[in-house]
Design brief:
Elements: E1 4-10, H1 17-25, E2 33-38, H2 45-55, E3 59-63, H3 74-93, E4 100-103, E5 108-109, H4 114-124, E6 128-137, E7 158-160, H5 161-166, H6 176-186, E8 190-201, H7 211-225, H8 229-239, H9 247-260, H10 269-295
Parallel strand pairs: 1-2, 1-4, 2-3, 6-8
Antiparallel strand pairs: 4-7, 5-8, 6-7
Helix pairs in contact: 7-9, 8-9
């Protein structure tokens, strides 16, 4: 199989790193280069990673190129973007002809055939530019909610290198994974996760610092990306449908806080348009089709 590289940002992930490394060592198609970007860990993660890199030449440990203003959001997107760039550069310095590049979050566990399967999907469909596994939260038999087959997930988002280059690299913004999917489709690529390839997430996406902060951050991401207000309201209702019932409130609180202060919006008008009017039309058509199927024989 053609070579691929991975990038992982790390901040105080010592509890997760040994198992993550073991899951990569067990891959039937291992990475050519794995760059781990330490973002100022204080729990021994950096020292442990350097010990492991001495034993595994394909593991490269680097320091983040900027201080963190906040661990998630735009900062982590920039770290992931930079880590991918470094992984590709390291591979090329070793005369490795990289074909694919992926993000791997530190709080994820992978089945042994994970990357072999993603590469098979990309090789089967030359138009497929972005893919990923689907996520299940550890300790829960159900898949994580709100996953769409056409929206590869950030924790394991995996790119055909030509696609990644055509969109100018990983977007350095909050909600980078969704923006990357949009930009890829605008460039003519298809995007699709693999619904029967399940990776385990140690915690629900975006909730490292708690559910309240995580859903408020989702609201801020929605404001940044230009999600239409009607869809913001619909998403808040969906989040409030089951326990804990306050997730929709915190989502709206995050959106309104950035709206009220006139926070920065995504600088790419095409991305904003897709998340705004284009996505609203898409959802309206979907709802209309569902309604017609119910009333027509």
């Amino acid at each position: 199989m053609k070579p691929y590289v991975l990038a992982t940002p790390v901040f105080d992930e010592m509890a997760a790193l040994p198992e993550l490394l073991r899951s990569l060592q067990a891959q039937t198609a291992p990475p050519a280069v794995w760059v781990v970007v330490d973002d100022g860990s204080r729990d021994g993660s950096r020292a442990w990673l350097e010990e492991q890199s001495a034993q595994h030449p394909w593991l490269v440990v680097l320091s983040a190129p900027e201080a963190a203003d906040e661990y998630l959001g735009a900062h982590i997107a920039r770290i992931k973007r930079w880590g991918l760039e470094q992984a590709i550069a390291v591979a090329r310095s070793k005369s490795i002809d990289v074909a694919y590049a992926g993000i791997l979050d530190a709080d994820v566990l992978l089945p042994p055939h994970h990357y072999e399967r993603l590469i098979q999907e990309l090789e089967r469909d030359p138009q497929l530019g972005v893919t990923s596994s689907i996520m299940r939260v550890m300790g829960d038999d159900r898949l994580e909610k709100y996953q769409r087959i056409d929206l590869p997930r950030g924790p394991t988002q995996f790119f055909r290198l030509e696609c990644l280059e055509s969109i100018g690299g990983l977007p350095p913004w909050p909600g980078f994974d969704g923006a990357a999917n949009v930009k890829a489709r605008l460039q003519g690529w298809s995007t699709r996760l693999v619904p029967d390839l399940v990776a385990i997430h140690r915690r629900e996406t975006g909730t490292r610092f708690g559910s309240k902060e995580g859903y408020a951050r989702k609201g801020r991401y929605a404001y940044f990306l230009g999600v239409h207000p009607l869809l913001v309201a619909a998403r808040a209702l969906a989040y409030s449908h089951e326990p804990p019932f306050d997730r929709g409130y915190h989502f709206l609180k995050g959106w309104f806080s950035d709206f009220a202060r006139g926070a920065e919006r995504c600088p790419d008008p095409d991305v904003r348009r897709q998340y705004g009017t284009a996505r609203l039309l898409e959802v309206t058509r979907y709802v209309a089709r569902r309604a017609l199927r119910r009333v027509l024989p």
